[in-house]
Amino acid sequence: MNQKILEIQHLTKIYGKDKKAVDDLSLCVYAGDIYGFIGQNGAGKTTTLRAVTGVLEFDAGEIFIDGHSIRKEPVACKSVTAYIPDNPDLYEFLTGVQYLNYIGDIFGVKKSLRSERIQKYADMFRIAGDLGSLIGSFSHGMKQKLAIIGALLHAPKLMVLDEPFVGLDPEAAFKLKQVFREICDNGSAIFFSTHVLDVAEKLCNKIAIIQSGKLIADGETETVRGNESLESVFLEVLENHAR
Ligand code: ATP
Questions:
Q1: Is 11 in the pocket of ligand 1 (CB under 6 A)?
Q2: pLDDT tens digits for the chain (243 residues)?
Q3: Half-sphere exposure of 38 toward its Cβ, with a 13 Å CA cutoff?
Q4: What whole-number distance in Å separates Cα of residue 243 and Cα of residue 124?
Q5: Where are the domains of the chain?
Q6: Which ligand 1 atom sits closest to the C-alpha of 48?
Q7: Predicted structure pTM score
Q8: Considering the domain 4-80+156-242 in this protein, what is its CATH number?
Q9: Distance 42 CA to ligand 1 centre (A)
Q10: Is the CB of residue 219 less than 8 Å from the CB of residue 207?
Q11: Atom 27 in ligand 1: which residue has the minimum CA distance?
């Protein structure tokens, strides 16, 4: 699978007059990749993910999703992408099932496929019994699970997630990793940020490390890590680039 799903070319984002949050960052995510994006607090991960998903304008560079420019063809990009921010802000006045149907309508998911997928993922994340309740009554973890089911409902080619494992119970985190593998085996791609290096090391076939807006290491996980743990490499690389 060497189809390019996401291509970031020389991305630069400046907040205000001179806060360069992302600085000339380029990387590619291919079909089948589970791509982990790691870096310290404030390194520029969320900014990059928001630029990729078209919710944040950027100052220079280009981003292509499935061959379409996020700037020039945002609808084509968004129709094949699912984005789960670190704190999903869902419609609190809808019930879980109303929200999922709303997502299904937006992405044109056929009714039969929709109920099949809702049932599969709601059972998997043990939230089926709660879907009739208002989202406003959901816990943080339940909202996250609902956002994940909404994302999976339209079988996106690219899933972009910001810290997806924070706040999930251990079983849900395990299931999410299984789902990542399943959808990537079927030709989709995942690009996600995480601070959990252990997860990144075990789950991701590719890793990128960002520091102060700059990409300082990227590639196959095994190559990035060499014979060391990802944690040691991460700390070493940060130290070397801080000098
Ligand atoms: P964390 O791991 O803490 O979530 P991050 O790697 O996701 O961090 P970003 O949120 O992308 O980092 O922030 C990158 C830099 O840009 C930080 O210095 C942050 O203070 C700054 N920044 C982010 N959003 C804004 C904004 N709206 N206005 C000004 N500066 C911002």
A1: no
A2: 689 999 999 999 999 989 999 999 999 999 999 999 999 999 999 999 999 999 999 999 999 999 999 999 999 999 999 999 988 889 999 999 999 999 999 999 999 999 999 999 999 999 999 999 999 999 999 999 999 999 999 999 999 999 999 989 999 999 999 999 999 999 999 999 999 999 999 999 999 999 999 999 999 999 998 888 888 888 888 888 776
A3: 28
A4: 47
A5: 4-80+156-242, 89-155
A6: 11
A7: 0.95
A8: 3.40.50.300
A9: 5
A10: yes
A11: 15
Return the structure tokens found at 59. Answer: 């100052």
Tell me the C-alpha distance between 28 and 43, whole Å: 19
Residue keyed to tokens 């992302």: 22
Q: Regarding beta strands 60-65 and 68-69, do their DSSP bridges make them parallel or antiparallel, or are they unpaired?
A: antiparallel
Task: Answer whether 43 contacts ligand 1 (Cβ < 6 A).
Answer: yes
- Report CA(212)–ligand 1 centroid distance (Å): 10
Closest CA to 14 of 1, 27, 25: 25
User: Six-digit token pair at 180?
Assistant: 């990542």
- Closest ligand 1 atom to residue 44 Cα is 11
Atom 19 in ligand 1: residue holding the nearest Cα: 42
**Residue 69, burial from CB neighbour count under 10 angstroms (0-12, 13-18, 19+):** middle
Q: Which of 20, 47, 192 to mutate to test the pocket of ligand 1 (most atoms within 8 A of CB)?
A: 47
